[in-house]
Fold:
Amino acid sequence: MLTISQLAAYAGVTVRAVRHYHQIGLLPEPERDRSGYRTYDTAAIVRLIRIHTLADAGVPLARVQELLDAGPEEFADGVQEIDKELRAEIRRLRGTRERLARLAAGEHLALPRSVVDYLDRLRGLGVDERYIELERDSWILVAAQVPHLIDAVIAKKHEQLDDPDMLRLYGFLSGPLDWAANDPRVVEIADILERLAIRAVEAGEVGAAQGVDDRFVDLMDSAMVESSPGAARILAILEERGWRGWTRIERVPAGRLNAQAE
Structure:
C-alpha cells in the first residue's frame, strides 16, 4: 500500500494534483486506515496514470471522466471529438494573434485590410500624413456604417488613382493643409474636382455612396472643412459652379441654385 506522496511519485504528478483529482471526483479518495492515513493500491496508480496521460495530452479535465469510463469505440469517438474542438480553438487563437498583430500597426484598429492597403498606397504617393489621418478616420466611420460596401468602394478608389487628375489632386495633398482661402491651389483643386465630378456623372457614378445617409456625409464634409481654411472655399467654388459636397459630390439642380441665390 502506498501513501499519497508515493502514489504521486509513481504516477509522475504532484501531491497537490492528486488532491485536486480527489476534489473533482476523478480519483476516488480511500478511507483512512487505523493509523489515520489514506493508503492507495495498484488500481489507484493505474487510474492516476491514465488521468495524467489524458490531461497531459490536452484532454480537458471535464472530459477525462467520460473517456476513463468509455469502451474502445466510445473512447476513439471521444478523442476525435476533442481533437476537433482543439483544432477549432487553435484556429480561433491564430485568428486572435493575427488580429493582435494587425492592431500593433495602429491603423488596423477598426479598419479592414483593404482600407489599410489603400492608405499605404497614398503614403507611397507622398500624401501628407495629416491628410492620411483625416482619411483614416473617415474610413473608420464608413467601415462601421456600411461594412458590406467598404471593399467595393476601396476597389473603386484604387481605380481612380489611375486617373491623372486624381493623382494631381493627391499631389496637392503631399504638403501641409493650412492653405489660405485665397491660395491659387484652391481654385486649381476645385477645377480638378469638377472635372472628376463631370466624368463621374458621364459614367453614372455620382451618388455611388449608396447606403451612406446624408447626415453621415455632412459629418465627414464638416471634418474636411475644419481641416483647412481652403477647404471651405473649395466647396463654395464648386457650389457656385453647380456642385455640392466633398465626400459625395453631386450636381445641384438649377432651380435650387436660383433659390439659394435669391
In short: Strands lie at 243-244, 250-251.
